[in-house]
Amino acid sequence: MSIRTNILIRVYLAFGLILLFAGAVVVQLCRVQFVQGKKWRAMSSSLSTQYMNVEAARGNIFSSDGSMLATSVPEYELHMDMLAGGIADDKIFYEKVDSLALTLSRFFGDRTTSEYSRMMRNARRDSSRYLLIRRKVSFQELKQVRKFPIFNMGKYKGGLIVVQQNKRILPFRSLAARTIGYKNENVKNAVGLEGAYAEYINGENGKRLMQRMAGGVWMPVNNGDDEIAPKEGADIISTIDVNFQDVAQSALKKEMVTSQADHGCVVLMEVATGEIKAIANFTKTKDGDYQEKLNYAISDAAEPGSTFKLATYMTAFEQHKIDTNTMINVEGGKMHVIPTNSKYTVTDAEVDKYYLISAKTAFEESSNVAAAKFIYDHYKDDPREFTDALYGYHLNEKLDLQIPGEGAPLIKTPKSRSWSKLTLPQMAYGYEEKLTPLQMLVFYNSVANNGKMIAPVFVREIRRLNNTVEQFQARVINEKVCSDETLGKMRSMLEGVVLEGTGKNVIKNPLYSVAGKTGTAQIANGAFGYGVKKMHQASFCGYFPADHPKYSMIVVINNPQGEYLAAKVAGPVFRAIADRVYSSDLEMNQSAPLRFVGGTQLPKTKAGNRKAAQEVYSKLNIKPLYASNNAAVSGVDTSSGLAFEEVKYEKGSVPAVTGMGLSDALYVLGNAGYKVGVRGSGIVVKQSVTGGSIIPKGSKITIELQ
To answer: What count of other Cβ atoms lies within 10 Å of the Cβ of residue 491?
Structure first.
């Protein structure tokens, strides 16, 4: 064989081997891709792991008295690893699976025993590592489930996989629900306190190593244990008073149902602090019910109507244009303000019997004609003098609230594009400007607060682990809205509205004084405007007690059917809420001092905490006398008042607790180092070891109460 032939054979052989190898590679690629593709894709998925976020428990929201308004409770999702170590042996699994199926069926009641058994047997056959057993399981239910057959074999052997989730609940349900708000990843705009303080409430998420199973399901690698534990969010202490909130919602809804109004709101505010104690909003639903869907109190900027006359008269008084005794002809409650080719007529709803009246009476009787004439006559040549004063009150500015969604106010000026000859007189009685109910309330609150205008407060403080992170106080908007002289006139006229004016038959209460203003405004009916079908908004804004104001409040009801005058629609709501608030607030509702005569005895008191006893007797106007600052005392009745004696005991000896209530007795004995057994209820009448005895700490002492 020649050398050339030998070389060619070797080349052909090498080339053939290369082709054969390439063909084998192609065949194997096709086999892996098409024949074994499902198997390898499943394996790839099962081997994929990554760290995923574990949602932190959100912080709580509390009312001002410590009641919980919103909290997060754990909710669990139960899965099962069908190849767990304790049931790796088929014999063990099939011996107990029916018992587990029976127990699950009886406990949850969502499937029959045979359905549970079939589901787990099929999952076992498919080697499932993450079978879903049940969603939305409570902690108490989880405790019971851990005792079920197979699951009671242990954390890893029984195959039970628990995934914790957090569920947000409102213990008082609809109470202040819109103000509390909610967290929704699909809603970009923050809602209520939940949205505004999400940075604090949300906490810090943890991390957990998860493994992707077939079908795209993710399973915890370490059976639910977190590699990085989540940190709970901070708590929000709101200004809401649960009792006042309940009263406000009940009173508002009752009137809404009676008048079949479209929507309405109530805001109760503490005068000196600016704290919002109650805020309620209701919207009429399609089925005729009322629910809290929108926070109209902070978002609904609308024409306020006659409640705006407070700003009108305050400006005229402050600039010495008129005085309370300035007379005005209201022409029977109907007149043309601008006689120059104008058909515009100003009418009064309740002043049709008047002609020549004083400014004070015009305010109290809510004359639109008087307000329009006063402002038009004195400011027609220089409207800016009037509008600048309104801007000086900061009525054109938002309140920069702690919760989102505040509506933008509108106070026109002569430079406004929509300014006309009618604007000035209409502004005088609450038209062609827009304010939210809360913005109007803040202005009224400034009158009650001796002229200081402050922004409302919804959140008092933020706490983390019971430590204060941040505290909030009212921001001062205007130190003095007007002079003391003008302030006195306005307060007198606001009281007159209730004593002699439009509010006297509904809002007036003989037990306490109220100051405020009614407001009945005609509102636009959508595209039909003001003319086709008349719609009204009824409101009352004021404060109480008028002589030393503690609370201010506004009630606004939109489009009531039938009766629409503010005094008869909004007035009853204001009265109902104010009555309940006054009766429950001891600082306002002070009864006459107690006078003991003849054989009258002082109220019986238990021995116990000195400060508590002292506070009770001081509320009863009984002078407490005490000799020391010891925390525990026994009451001694004397002819000169109530004296307090110390409960003395030597260190290491048993304190005498006879005469105390249960809580005080437990406190004293517990601090002394003894365990306590209790029988009965009432006052301690007997203790198993007499006071002064010396027995070892940790001993048990039984007390009897009657």
So the answer is: 18
Stated as kind and residue range, the H or E segment containing 223 is none
Concatenate the DSSP letters of all residues of 285-304 into one string. Answer: -TTS-EE--S-HHHH--B--
Three-state secondary-structure class, residue 137: strand
Rounded CA-CA distance 317/670 in Å is: 66
Is residue 413 a contact partner of residue 360, using CB atoms and an 8 Å limit? no
Per-residue tokens: 473: 């106080």
Please, which residues have CB within 8 angstroms of residue 359's CB and are 6 or more apart in sequence?
313, 316, 322, 323, 324, 325, 326, 327, 328, 370, 374
Under 8 Å between Cβ of 399 and 342: no
Query: Residue 164, class by beta-carbon neighbours within 10 Å (0-12 exposed, 13-18 middle, 19+ buried)?
Result: middle
User: CB of 568 within 8 A of CB of 542?
Assistant: no
Say how far apart CA 97 and CA 109 lie, in whole Å.
17
- Please tell me the least confidently modeled range out of 463-467, 572-576, 639-643: 639-643
- 556: helix, strand or coil: strand
Backbone angles phi, psi at 476, to 5 degrees: -80, 120
Backbone angles phi, psi at 243, to 5 degrees: -65, -45
Compute the distance between CA of residue 621 and CA of residue 590 in angstroms, rounded to an integer.
11
Distance of alpha carbon 228 from alpha carbon 54, whole angstroms: 9
Comparison of pLDDT for 443 and 24, the residue scoring more: 443
The string over 504-514, giving b where at least 16 C-beta atoms fall within 10 Å of a residue's C-beta and e elsewhere, is eebbbeeebbb
CATH topology of domain 246-584: Beta-lactamase (3.40.710)
What is the average per-residue pLDDT within 579-600? 68
Mean per-residue pLDDT over the chain, rounded: 84
pLDDT at 640: 46
CB 15: neighbour CB atoms within 10 A? Answer: 10
Mapped onto helix, strand or coil, the DSSP state of residue 298 is helix
pLDDT for residue 314 is more than 60: yes
- pLDDT tens by residue, 75-99: 899 999 898 888 988 889 999 999 9
| Type of residue found at 563 | E
CATH code assigned to 52-238: 3.90.1310.10
Find residue 522's DSSP bridge partners.
536
CATH architecture of 649-706: 2-Layer Sandwich (3.30)
Q: Report which residue type is found at 706.
A: Q
Residue 194 has pLDDT above 60, yes or no: yes
Task: Please report the beta strands in 147-275, taking only residues with DSSP state E, as ranges in sequence order.
Answer: 160-169, 206-212, 218-220, 235-238, 263-270
Rg of the chain over Cα atoms, rounded to whole angstroms, equals 38
What does DSSP say about strands 131-137 and 68-80: parallel, antiparallel, or unpaired? Answer: antiparallel
Query: What 3-state class would DSSP assign to 142?
Result: helix
Q: Residues 671-689: pLDDT tens digits?
A: 777 777 777 777 888 887 7
Do the Cβ atoms of 197 and 236 come closer than 8 Å?
Answer: yes
User: Where is average pLDDT lowest: 424-428, 504-508, 546-550?
Assistant: 504-508
Q: Both tokens of residue 621? A: 């106007």
Local structure of residue 381 (DSSP, 8 states): S
pLDDT at 215 over 70: no
- The pLDDT-based confidence of 227 (bands split at 50, 70, 90) is low
Which residues contact residue 97 at a Cβ distance below 8 angstroms, ignoring those fewer than 6 apart? 117, 120, 121, 124, 150
* Helix, strand and coil in the chain, % to nearest 5: 35, 25, 40
pLDDT at 636 (0 to 100): 44
Taking only the tens place, the pLDDT of each residue in 96-113 is 999 999 999 999 999 999
Rounded Cα distance between 635 and 244, Å, is: 35
Residue-range domain boundaries for the chain: 3-35, 52-238, 246-584, 602-648, 649-706
